[in-house]
Amino acid sequence: MDEIEDLRSFVEIARSRSLSRAAEAMGISKSMVSRRLTRLEAGFGARLFDRTTRGVRPTEAGDELITRAERILAELEEAREVVAARSGTVLGTLRLAAPLAYGVHALTPLLGELAAANPGLEIEVDFDDRFVDLIESRFDAVIRIGTLPDSSFIARRLAPVRAHCVASPDYLARRGRPAHPRDLAGHDCLRYLTRGGSEWEFVSAGRRVGFRPRGRLASTSGDAILRWAIAGYGIALLPSFMGGDAIAGKRLERVLPDFPSPESALWIMRPPGGYVPAKVRVLTDFLVARLGGG
């Protein structure tokens, strides 16, 4: 298995362009990565990387090896999964990306259950609201909310998502309760920061009504907006998986219930291809079963 581990280290160095970053990604020492590379170069009789002030870059021989090494490792992983599947076991590391707020509020307990039910499965989750490139970031799957862009990735709908306007009882007692989306112009709105700006949308008589919220408090964190709303600093538009507990506990109240936001959806996406790794299939089936797939 030394040759396999040497190939793993080689591929990680090629991806990260650094022995230090490769060692960090693999959870081993830099000296171990260096020894594996030296052993691999000796075995092939060729230098595989050139050292630069910024890290390393593959030589011509290294470039020739990269694709083949990735294919060897992928086929080995597939073989392990096929053998394990015969005994009903799921093996390997599942690398998943998910939105921060949804991950913290809803996905975390589900992944804990999935890990408990599959002792051979390791789960690594990156909770972040940024757009994730599945291929370059080497994630096995990604969870997304909203309208999906056109792509070759395979997507499965997991559940509907709808946002609600909410505010604390204290805020509504002080500032009054808006009766129509246009009334929000006279209120402090807690804004979610996005690159293109944020517009709140409502459905009225079958038509969409847009409103550009204004307010002194804004954040890229849904949790910050939730806390501000509970503290009485303004009106927030929050997905139901975030505000539901606070509404049930009467710390927040629904605002504009007759003007719902357009329904969105929760999706799981994976790279294109006919072969679906067992770990991705198990994750997808589990989430569809728990969330309804609607």
TrEMBL record:
Protein name in the entry: LysR family transcriptional regulator
Pfam entry (one): HTH_1
Keyword Repressor: no
DNA-binding found in the keyword field: yes
Family from the record: Belongs to the LysR transcriptional regulatory family.
CDD domains assigned to the protein according to its UniProt record, in alphabetical order: PBP2_CrgA_like (cd08422)
GO terms classed as biological process: DNA-templated transcription
Keywords on record: DNA-binding, Transcription, Transcription regulation
Listed SUPFAM superfamilies: Periplasmic binding protein-like II (SSF53850), Winged helix' DNA-binding domain (SSF46785)
Species, as recorded: Amaricoccus solimangrovi
GO molecular function terms listed in the Swiss-Prot or TrEMBL record: DNA-binding transcription factor activity; sequence-specific DNA binding
Domain (HTH lysR-type): residue spans on this chain: 1-59
Organism superkingdom: Bacteria
